[in-house]
Amino acid sequence: MLKDLIKMMVQALVSNPGMVHVEEMQGENISVYELTVAKEDRGRIIGKNGQTVKSIRTIINAVSSRSNRKAVLEIVE
Which residues of the chain, if any, have pLDDT below 70? Predict the structure, then answer.
């Protein structure tokens, strides 16, 4: 569910939505999401001073806290 939410949000922001891939790795109380986008879209996802990625992380943390899990979003180079 959260993987699909991340993918949907990011695809709306980038110019190459077909290049968006989200990998999910789950631990006991944590989920790590690795986000891969086209090289030219990385700046759009990070945003000015990291504000865009910070906003995305805030949203996924709010959603994941409802199930008592921690969520981490990493942008893969």
Answer: none
